[in-house]
Amino acid sequence: MQRIALADDNRTGAAGKYRPIYNWSFPEVLMSLVRYLMLLSLVVWIGGLIFFAFVLAPTVFAVLPTRQLAGNVVNRSLGILHWMALSCGVVFAVTSMIDSRIVNGVAKPFALRNLLIYAMIILTLVGMFGIASRMGVLREQMGVIDDLPHDDARRIEFNHLHVWSTRIEGSVLVLGLALLYLTARRMS
């Protein structure tokens, strides 16, 4: 570790004492780590949503030989993304309250940024356990969806649920982008 010699200094109290070049205190290191985890959790969640919606889903439907295979890849990927999202949501909520506690002395669980992350988590849970689980049941009942007539009740319900799934994921993305902006603004 590189050190520098200090002349008489009120901070050290004695001439010729050595101290590290850097001047980080434990609270500064902790705040950096907390804020890093806050941003990382948002970037992973939002980045995952963007990649899924604009790269993965369109690519597999364009490249794979059947819509059934593409749907299987998308379904599996969305399930993984949902679990990652929930983990990121918990990390953000916890680190956000730690950040508030350190800065303001109060955790502020009902601060706007926390309300936004709660909404994102709730929407993700609805997408996972409400919509995606029902779509999975329909998928099993239908077999190959393209073999069914367009007016089949199961196919109509599946398409309706797909529309709602897309709306929910889009809402989570918009909330996440707003939250990212609020978080970045708070840290500046």
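Next protein, fold it too.
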Amino acid sequence: MSQGKMRALIVGCLAAVWAICFSLPFAPSALADNFPKVIMQTSKGTIVISVYTPFVPRNANNFLDLVGRGFYNGLMFHRVEDWVVQGGDPRGNGTGNFVDENGRSRYVPLEIHQALHHSAPGVVAMAHGPNPNSGSCQFYILKQSRMQIDGKYSIFGGVIRGMDVVNRLQPGDTIISAEIYNPNPVRRPSPSNLGPVQDLGGPNGGTGF
């Protein structure tokens, strides 16, 4: 076999393996090793979240920026159902957004990646209102697979430790603190990787499912 044919065969095999890997369901811990981590201390215990910055940079960096600002400290989980918990709302009722130092609400657009699915407990994603590009600060954690919402919300992370804590959360439980653990400091996102700030009518429409 010629060198050119051998190279083509190797490239083809690698492409096939890549496609198969990205088509399979995954547990969040399967993607955990090479990403920034957020250590979230809650009133029920510690949750560790791996944040998928290469896959969905705008939503992932938005979350890391909010963590770095201390935005989530003291906020509550306002929604708890058998399949999901949701928190990160400064109003505590599902209608709040992040407002920056200039008084402007910040929104990030919907980002979907072929490797990320609502296929397992521990998936972490950005909640939004009726406009899919209205994600801001509220996030949810799956307690059960929820494939029917795939493609509708930006998955940006996964719980790699503390699912027992997630399962014990009740409405009103709080995020005591959240901090980034990463050997390489995470810079605050610039407008280029957060996207433009959008005027979507503010929080009146609510944020959630």
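About the second fold: The chain is about 20% helix and 20% strand.
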